[in-house]
Amino acid sequence: MRKKSKKGQEGFSLIEILIVVAVIGVLAAMIVPSAFSAVDKGKVATLLSDYRAVKSAVLNYYTDVGSWPAESADGTGLVGKPATSPATWSGPYLERWPTSPWENVSFEIKKITTGTAPNTETKYILEIDKVPAEVVNKIYDELGSATVTKSVSDEVGMQLLLAKVNV
């Protein structure tokens, strides 16, 4: 029960203020991790969206031109007209080349050929380097082993399959 306060001494006690601060601290401790988790999910969704856009652009390029785009770290042939473009090029196939939601991460289209003639296999991949390991695992879980090749070296990265050609 509160005592009658003297005139001019109304307000909260120190204990009441400490309780409110403690409750706010507990609530913040519960909310902040989920907020960071939402940001990470957004970054993964952006990466997946960019991969799908590049894959679609590569396939559209092939449909128009009849050959695959050259290896590129800047989307040459997909974002802008290549210096030696065939008459059937009707791009641009991408509005912009992907930029990473993480620092110092690069995207590069590469061609990997394995086997010897007449049994060769060529893969066109989107190589993404310096991606946080937990992100690589999330992308792997989302797309599966047929699409994602994890590369674990000094810098974690991955290769995402764009197209596979068997000759």
TrEMBL record:
It comes from the Bacteria. It is found in: Membrane. It is a single-pass membrane protein. SUPFAM superfamilies: Pili subunits (SSF54523). The keyword Transmembrane applies. Pfam families: N_methyl (PF07963), PilW_C (PF22434). Keywords: Membrane, Methylation, Transmembrane, Transmembrane helix. This is General secretion pathway protein G. Gene3D superfamilies: Glycoprotein, Type 4 Pilin. The chain crosses the membrane at residues 12-36. GO terms for cellular component: membrane; type II protein secretion system complex. One of its GO terms (biological process) is protein secretion by the type II secretion system. The lineage of its organism: Bacteria, Bacillati, Bacillota, Clostridia, Eubacteriales. The keyword Membrane applies. NCBIfam families: IV_pilin_GFxxxE.
